[in-house]
C-alpha cells in the first residue's frame, strides 16, 4: 500500500448515467470513448499538473562550475524558492530550456517535482462589516469619538451606515469604495485600525436574480390546447414534435411546460442550435424563472462552465433549467424530466469535426431515455426525419398553425431576376422593387432584415484578361475577398494574403470581383441609404463573448435600421419592429451539391421570412431569384411545408437517403495524392465486398484538398430497417484491417455516422 497523496474530489464529478450515455455515444458514432470524454468535460474539471523546479535540499553548489545560464537560474532560485518552466524560458529568453535544466539536475543543483493544480478558480468577493464592538447601540457614538480627528475616515464610516440602512444586505468593499468616492487603501486603513473587518464569500459568476420580472404569461386558446396535447402525447410517447409556424409563440408554450416539470421537482434542459440565440432566450426565460436559469455553452469560460457543472451535479436550485448549445448534453443531470430541442431541424446540432460526430437531437433522445425523461422537439420547419417519425407514430405530433395574436403570416413576393424588365432595374444587387420597399418601410420607422448566405465581400477575385482566380495554397478552394481588411481569405483554413494588385498568372491589372457576400451588401446599402444606420451580423462581426449580444441589442433598441446577415439571423430571433425581410439571392442555396439542399433552402428561407411582421403588423418578404418557378421557391412562397415534405420524402426513398437509409460517411485524408487514391480504392473494395448494402465511392469531393491534405469519401447506406449495430461492427473490422496495411497506415480515416 502507498500513502495517499491527495484526494482529488470528495464526491464523484460525473454520474453513472453520464458514463452510460457517453459509452453509447462512442458506440453509436463509432469513435473512441476518450474523444467523448474530451468533448464532455470542461477542461478545468480535469486536474492539470505543472513541473516545479526548486533548489535541491542540502545542496552545496560550487558556482564556479556553472555556466552563465545555469548561474542565472541558480540566482533566481535564491530569490524565489520555486520556478516554473515558463519562468525559466523568460529568464533565459529562449525556447528550449530543457538541456540546461537537465544539466542542473545532473550537477545536483536543482530538483523537479510535479504540482497538481485544480483548473477551477472560485470567484471570491470581498465584503466588509463593522467590527463587533461598534455594532452595539452606543457603537456609532464611540466610533465617532475615536475618529474625531480623522474627517475623511469619519466620512467613510457614515457612508457605511447609510449603505447599511438602505441596502439591507451585506456590503462589498467595492460598493463602499464607490459610494464614499474613496480608495480601497482608505478602507484598508480602517481595517487595520480594527474598525472594519473584511471577509470573503464565494459567489456564482452568473446570476439572473435581477432579471425576474414576475410578468404572467397568458396562453392563447390555441397555445393552451397545444400545451395540453403535448402533455397528453407524453402519456404514450417519449418524444413529441411541436410543429408551430414562425411567431406562433412556441417559446411561451415551452415556458408553461417547463413550469409544470419544475413543480414536480424535475430539471429541464433547453437546447438551442446556436449560441447567438441564447441571448434572447436567456432574457425571456430568466424574466420568468429568475435564478433558476443557468446557461452553458462554449463562449462561457472554464470557470463559469464549472460552476454550472457543479450546480447541476449538486442538484442545486440554481440550475433547474439549463439553456445551452449541444455540449450542455454532457452535464451531470440528476432528476432530469424534460429536454426541449428548439429549432430541431438545424444542422448545427450535428457536430462535424472533431469526433464525437454526434447529433444533439438524437443524443438528447437517448439521454432522456436513461433518465426516463421526455423530449419536446420544436420547429416551424421540422427536419424530414423528424416529421417522418412524427407522422409514423414514433413521436407525438402537435401543431400550432397560426401566429400569436392577430398577426397573419407575412406576404411573400418573388423578384424574378431572369426577367429582363427586373434585371435592367438593378442597382448593384438590389432590384428596384426591393429598394422601393425598403424606402417605404423606413419611412414608417420600421426595420429591415436582409439575408445573404455568404460572408465577406465577394467570393471571387477574377482576372478579366486570363480568367485566373486566386486559390488557397493549402486547400482546393478560391479565396474570398474581404474588402474591409483588403485581404483574400480562405474560409476553410484561415489562410490569408493581401489583395493582389495584379494577376499572378498573367500580370494583368484588370481584376474584378465576382459574386457577393454580406460585406458588399452592406456597402451597397450605405450608398443607397446614406442616412440609415446599417448593421451586419455574420461570423466576422460577432467574435468575442458579447459579439452577438451587442448587435442583437442595438437592433432591438432600433439603433440599427437595416440589418444584413448570414444564416445566423435566420434562427429563432424575435424582433417586434421588423416588417420587411429581403432574401438577396435564393439560388446559391438551392444548387448546393447535397441531398438536403432543397430541404435546407426551404427551412432557411421560411425561417428568415419568419422574422418579418411578428408583433402587430403583417410583414412582407421579397425573394430575389433566377428560379421563381422552382418547386422549393414555390413551396416557400405558399408556406407549404407539407408539399416540401412530400416531395423530399419521395426523392429520399428513390435515391436511398434518410429517413429510409442511414448514411455513414468515411473521409480519408492524406498529403500524398497517389497513396490516397490507392488506399481509398482498397477500402472501398473491401467494404463493397463485405457489406450487402449500397457502398458508394471512393469519391473525390468538390473541394478535394484542405490544409494540404487530399480528400476522398466513401458513403455507406444502411437501410433503416436493418440493425445498424452489426454493420458497424463489420465496418470497424475492415477499418482495422485497413490500418494493418503498412502502406496505408499514414492515411487518416474519420467516420461520420448519420452524416449531415
Ligand atoms: P416562435 O418561437 O413560435 O417563433 P415566439 O415564442 O417568439 O414564437 O413568439 C412570437 C412573439 O409573440 C413573441 O414576441 C412573444 O413574446 C409573443 N407571444 C407569443 N405568445 C404570447 C403570449 N401567450 N402572451 C404574450 N406574448 C406572446
Ligand atoms: Zn490573369
Ligand atoms: Zn485554405
TrEMBL record:
Catalytic reactions of this protein: ATP + H2O = ADP + phosphate + H(+); Couples ATP hydrolysis with the unwinding of duplex DNA by translocating in the 3'-5' direction
CDD domains: DEXHc_priA, SF2_C_priA
EC number: 5.6.2.4
Domain Helicase C-terminal: 476-653
InterPro entries linked: DEAD/DEAH_box_helicase_dom, Helicase_ATP-bd, Helicase_C-like, P-loop_NTPase, PriA, PriA_3primeBD, PriA_3primeBD_sf, PriA_C
SMART domains associated with the record: DEXDc, HELICc
Cofactor(s) named in the record: Zn(2+)
Helicase ATP-binding domain location: 231-400
Record: residues binding Zn(2+) 1: 463, 466, 503, 506
Binding positions (Zn(2+) 2): 472, 475, 490, 493
Key words, A-Z: ATP-binding, DNA replication, DNA-binding, Helicase, Hydrolase, Isomerase, Metal-binding, Nucleotide-binding, Primosome, Zinc
Gene3D superfamilies: P-loop containing nucleotide triphosphate hydrolases, PriA, 3(prime) DNA-binding domain
Entry's cofactor comment: Binds 2 zinc ions per subunit.
Protein family according to the UniProt entry: Belongs to the helicase family. PriA subfamily.
Subunit field text: Component of the replication restart primosome.
Annotated function: Initiates the restart of stalled replication forks, which reloads the replicative helicase on sites other than the origin of replication. Recognizes and binds to abandoned replication forks and remodels them to uncover a helicase loading site. Promotes assembly of the primosome at these replication forks.
Entry protein name: Replication restart protein PriA
Source lineage: Bacteria, Pseudomonadati, Bacteroidota, Flavobacteriia, Flavobacteriales
Gene: priA
Amino acid at each position: 500500500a502507498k500513502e495517499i497523496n491527495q484526494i482529488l474530489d470528495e464526491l464523484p464529478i460525473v454520474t453513472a448515467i453520464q458514463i452510460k450515455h457517453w459509452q453509447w455515444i462512442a458506440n453509436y458514432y463509432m469513435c473512441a470513448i476518450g474523444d467523448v470524454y474530451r468533448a464532455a468535460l470542461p477542461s478545468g474539471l480535469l486536474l492539470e499538473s505543472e513541473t516545479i523546479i526548486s533548489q535541491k535540499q542540502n545542496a552545496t553548489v560550487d558556482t564556479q562550475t556553472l555556466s552563465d545560464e545555469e548561474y542565472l537560474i541558480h540566482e533566481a532560485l535564491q530569490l524565489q524558492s520555486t520556478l516554473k518552466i515558463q519562468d525559466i524560458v523568460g529568464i533565459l529568453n529562449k525556447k528550449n530550456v530543457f538541456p540546461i535544466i537537465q544539466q542542473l539536475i545532473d550537477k545536483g543543483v536543482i530538483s523537479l517535482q510535479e504540482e497538481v493544480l485544480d483548473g477551477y478558480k472560485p470567484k471570491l468577493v470581498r465584503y466588509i462589516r463593522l467590527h463587533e464592538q461598534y455594532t452595539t447601540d452606543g457603537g456609532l457614538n464611540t466610533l465617532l469619538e475615536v475618529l474625531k480627528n480623522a474627517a475623511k475616515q469619519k466620512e467613510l464610516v457614515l457612508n457605511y451606515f447609510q449603505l447599511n440602512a438602505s441596502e439591507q444586505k451585506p456590503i462589498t468593499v467595492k460598493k463602499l469604495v464607490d459610494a464614499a468616492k474613496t480608495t480601497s487603501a482608505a478602507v484598508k486603513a480602517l481595517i487595520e485600525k480594527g474598525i472594519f473587518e473584511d471577509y470573503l464569500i464565494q459567489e456564482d459568476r452568473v446570476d439572473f436574480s435581477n432579471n425576474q420580472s414576475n410578468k404572467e404569461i397568458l396562453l392563447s386558446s390555441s397555445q393552451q390546447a397545444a400545451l395540453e396535447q403535448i402533455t397528453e402525447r407524453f402519456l404514450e410517447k417519449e418524444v413529441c414534435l411541436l410543429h408551430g409556424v414562425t411567431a406562433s409563440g412556441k417559446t411561451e408554450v415551452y415556458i408553461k411546460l417547463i413550469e409544470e416539470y419544475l413543480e414536480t421537482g424535475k430539471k429541464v434542459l433547453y437546447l438551442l442550435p446556436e449560441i447567438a440565440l441564447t441571448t434572447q432566450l436567456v432574457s425571456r426565460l430568466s424574466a420568468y424563472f429568475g435564478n433558476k436559469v443557468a446557461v452553458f455553452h462554449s463562449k462561457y469560460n472554464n470557470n463559469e462552465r464549472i460552476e454550472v457543472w457543479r450546480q447541476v451535479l449538486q442538484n442545486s436550485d440554481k440550475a433547474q433549467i439549463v439553456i445551452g448549445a449541444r455540449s450542455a448534453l454532457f452535464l451531470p443531470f440528476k432528476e432530469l424530466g424534460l429536454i426541449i430541442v428548439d429549432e430541431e431541424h438545424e444542422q448545427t446540432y450535428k457536430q462535424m469535426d472533431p469526433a464525437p460526430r454526434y447529433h444533439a437531437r438524437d443524443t438528447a433522445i437517448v439521454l432522456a431515455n436513461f433518465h426516463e425523461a421526455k423530449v419536446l422537439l420544436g420547429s416551424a420547419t421540422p427536419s424530414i426525419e423528424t416529421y417522418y417519425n412524427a407522422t409514423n407514430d414514433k413521436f407525438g405530433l402537435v401543431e400550432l398553425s397560426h401566429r400569436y395574436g392577430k398577426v397573419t403570416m407575412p406576404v411573400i413576393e418573388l423578384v424574378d431576376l431572369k426577367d429582363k424588365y427586373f434585371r435592367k432595374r438593378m442597382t448593384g444587387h438590389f432590384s428596384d422593387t426591393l429598394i422601393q420597399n425598403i424606402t417605404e418601410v423606413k419611412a414608417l420607422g420600421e426595420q429591415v432584415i436582409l439575408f445573404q448566405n455568404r460572408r465577406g465581400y465577394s467570393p471571387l477575385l477574377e482576372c478579366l484578361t486570363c480568367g485566373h482566380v486566386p486559390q488557397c495554397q493549402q486547400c482546393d478552394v478560391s479565396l474570398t475577398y474581404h474588402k474591409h481588411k483588403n485581404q483574400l481569405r480562405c474560409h476553410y483554413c484561415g489562410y490569408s494574403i493581401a489583395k493582389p494588385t495584379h494577376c499572378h498568372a498573367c500580370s494583368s491589372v484588370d481584376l474584378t470581383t465576382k459574386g457577393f457576400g454580406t460585406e458588399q451588401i452592406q456597402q451597397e446599402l450605405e450608398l443607397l441609404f446614406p442616412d440609415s444606420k446599417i448593421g451586419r451580423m455574420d461570423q466576422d462581426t460577432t467574435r468575442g463573448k458579447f459579439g452577438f449580444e451587442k448587435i442583437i441589442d442595438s437592433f432591438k433598441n432600433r439603433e440599427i435600421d437595416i440589418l444584413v446577415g448570414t444564416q445566423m439571423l435566420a434562427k429563432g430571433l424575435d424582433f417586434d419592429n421588423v416588417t420587411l425581410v429581403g432574401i438577396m439571392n435564393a439560388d446559391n442555396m438551392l444548387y448546393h451539391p447535397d441531398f438536403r439542399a432543397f430541404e435546407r433552402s426551404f427551412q432557411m428561407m421560411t425561417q428568415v421570412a419568419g422574422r418579418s411582421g411578428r408583433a402587430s403588423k403583417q410583414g412582407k418578404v421579397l425573394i430575389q431569384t433566377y428560379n421563381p418557378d422552382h418547386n422549393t421557391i414555390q413551396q416557400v412562397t405558399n408556406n407549404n411545408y407539407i408539399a416540401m415534405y412530400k416531395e423530399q420524402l419521395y426523392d429520399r426513398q428513390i435515391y436511398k437517403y434518410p429517413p429510409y437509409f442511414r448514411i455513414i460517411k468515411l473521409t480519408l485524408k492524406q498529403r500524398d495524392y497517389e497513396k490516397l487514391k490507392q488506399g481509398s480504392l482498397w477500402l472501398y473494395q473491401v467494404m463493397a465486398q463485405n457489406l450487402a448494402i449500397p457502398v458508394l465511392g471512393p469519391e473525390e469531393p468538390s473541394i478535394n484538398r484542405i490544409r494540404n491534405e487530399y480528400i476522398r469519401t466513401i458513403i455507406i447506406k444502411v437501410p433503416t430497417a436493418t440493425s445498424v449495430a452489426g454493420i458497424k461492427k463489420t465496418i470497424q473490422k475492415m477499418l482495422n484491417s485497413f490500418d494493418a496495411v503498412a502502406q496505408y497506415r499514414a492515411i487518416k480515416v474519420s467516420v461520420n455516422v448519420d452524416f449531415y
